[in-house]
Known about the structure:
The structure is a homodimer.
Chain A: E1 5-21, E2 30-48, E3 56-58, E4 61-62, H1 66-75, E5 80-86, H2 96-111, H3 118-132, H4 138-144, E6 148-152, E7 160-163, E8 169-174, H5 180-185, H6 189-204, H7 208-221, H8 227-238, E9 243-245, E10 251-255, H9 258-261, E11 267-270, E12 277-278
Parallel strand pairs in A: 3-5
Antiparallel strand pairs in A: 1-2, 1-12, 2-5, 2-6, 3-4, 6-7, 8-10, 8-11, 9-10
Helix pairs in contact in A: 1-2, 1-3, 2-3, 2-4, 3-4, 6-7
Keywords (chains A, B): ATP-binding, Coenzyme A biosynthesis, Kinase, Nucleotide-binding, Transferase
Catalytic activity (chains A, B): (R)-pantoate + ATP = (R)-4-phosphopantoate + ADP + H(+)
EC number (chains A, B): 2.7.1.169
Amino acid sequence: MSRQRATVFVPGHVTAFFSAHPDDRPAAAGSRGAGVTLTDGVTVDVSAASGDGGTRLLDGEPSAIGAVEDVLDALDVPAVDVAVTADLPIGAGFGVSGAAALGTAVAANRAFDRGRSENDLVRIAHESEVRRGTGLGDVVAQARGGVPIRLEPGAPGFGALDGIPADARIEYVTFGELSTETVLGGDTTALSAAGVTALERVRADPRLPTMMAVAREFARSADLLVPEVDTAIDAVEAVGGEAAMAMLGRTVFALGTGLSDAGYDPEVCRIDAAGTRIVDERGRE
Amino acid sequence: MSRQRATVFVPGHVTAFFSAHPDDRPAAAGSRGAGVTLTDGVTVDVSAASGDGGTRLLDGEPSAIGAVEDVLDALDVPAVDVAVTADLPIGAGFGVSGAAALGTAVAANRAFDRGRSENDLVRIAHESEVRRGTGLGDVVAQARGGVPIRLEPGAPGFGALDGIPADARIEYVTFGELSTETVLGGDTTALSAAGVTALERVRADPRLPTMMAVAREFARSADLLVPEVDTAIDAVEAVGGEAAMAMLGRTVFALGTGLSDAGYDPEVCRIDAAGTRIVDERGRE
């Protein structure tokens, strides 16, 4: 029985710090680190193609995402229409590409009854994202929800996750794009050393304020801070708040009302408790 | 900074089939199998004790749960009041004891800022439940949400999980209690052999209808079916539905409108997408 259509929500994911762990096998490659998943996210609708070949829409405009195409190939689905709708800015460190890949995997599996398990779908999306060079850790984090700690890199079967048990309001402001491919394509040795140190500190004290403090140090020691974000972090700290830079984007995020208190006009959401989930009302049993 | 109070929701969990895997180390002991988590669940409120020593309430009545006490000891929290409220019948196969233990762990950690990670809290609740003999696999399933497949037994660090990606309406009817301790305390060899076979079939085809069919066979071959449940399963099958017995309870659960269609007057909920989550509004940042 095939529904021919399914809709899936994937939370946004902001990485607070990370280390990069390349591997020839895309399922084993990935990143370690920590971050927050957000109730602002990406909705992916997959359905049987209305015309020849199928359409690809990103926020209503024709636009193809490489990892999405790879996921569809891996699941061997028929010609489909894929519509990706993002609550979040693209290219700004929210894991939109990973969300699009994972949402497509879960939605296509449901719409065309592909009979894959959750781990299988997460692996397919993770591999597609890694091969395209657009991300290393967003997919496994977005599948879990909450505040994922990526203990070991890679897809299910390779990686290992923990989490900071937390619920909080999150504010964010984006100043523009930053290319994940450029940073991840360069020398990541110093960055990764800082990321491993940061992870050890969060594992020793898995609390949100610790993650934010560690993330600020990471961004500084890895030389990733951009001026607008640096200024915003300082402004939030000056009013007693906790803020950090999104990896990788010209984005600052803060706990609670940190950015509002500092005079910014942020977007507001919360930590997402659920992770990736089917949200279609069609074909419900 | 300690909030002194926190409220946590834990979904109910119905095991469809399982195999038991004892181990001298409670974190390594557990079960393999599959089941569904439910939007009907258990809410646990933990707060600083209002009087000497602290109170324990279960649905408003004074009542202590062994695993809850063990969790509080493990987290070394001060004198607390614990109020457990269940949307579900107790002793009927919904994992209420596991939910109470896990909810207490997450709520006490938050209320008294214990700084434990999610894996740590799941392990503490799992160990408490195993030591008390009240369950083997509910806690890890309830932490995850969805339709968990327990690939390997035990707490995080020992066990391994997958899931059937699904959203569905679930109906259930309970005919009374069945002692988990009695079944798990007896010879579980034949039961576990049937459970391992069932797990292989669901791993080969991770779909909900397959899980339900496999669960019916498991209950029959493990000789666990009680007459009222057997009758109800047959009635649902006769109208083209999918039903199975909850392990371990005198409970039948069905996909969609199976029990309604068969003339029963069931409780109605859905598969829970989120797993265990903090729901208190107090102290929100």
